[in-house]
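Give me the 3D structure for Carotenoid biosynthesis protein.
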Amino acid sequence: MTSTIASVDRYYSLAATLLTLAYVAGIVGLQLPALAPFFRPLVPVNLVVSLVVLLLYHTDWRPSFVFYAVLAVLTGFFVEVLGVQTGYVFGRYAYDTGLGDQLWAVPPVIGLNWLTLSYCCGTVCDRLPFPIYMKAIAAATLMVVLDIFIEPVAIRLNFWTWFGQPVPIRNYVGWWLVSLALLAIWYGLPFQKKNRLATLMLLLQFVFFVGHNIIFLLQSR
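Predicted structure for Carotenoid biosynthesis protein (221 residues):
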């Protein structure tokens, strides 16, 4: 495993460049009407590829990390199933067509995205000079801040819908609580929270969603 990490580490600059280009292209492609039909089906593909590339740079594959990865994916997916089917947790919403095929009215890729976001936020906040419980709170809060930028874009790009209603506060509270539970487990498990790609990946997430929000704002004027 060490040799594999060393091997992919040599290609970090290439991986970082390609990811950056992919996210920037996503902003442009999804905003241009002529290109949007070609880029929309690539959204779930990009989520999967982003996670795969991120995990190539993970440094500690002991069983505790594998446990967390599986737990985060399953928790993220099934809490969304619960949310969609009952209206609890996040409020009344439904997934649209933008994230691909669905199982129980939820795209399975959304579980992978919960792993990606919790992984990136957990890794970035692990550098803070705080006790573990404060790191978990900081990382969960960072995830909610990102979700604030995600929501308007997700609605406009047909990722999900709130049926014409404003995004409820319950959504952000639910995001924070689920994130906090996952990140408390993340910090409590004995594996290294190091990944040189995590900061860039999180930054690209912010660039992607903030960029779309800025464009939508300019279009509304």
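The chain has one domain: 2-219. Let me know if you want a second pass.
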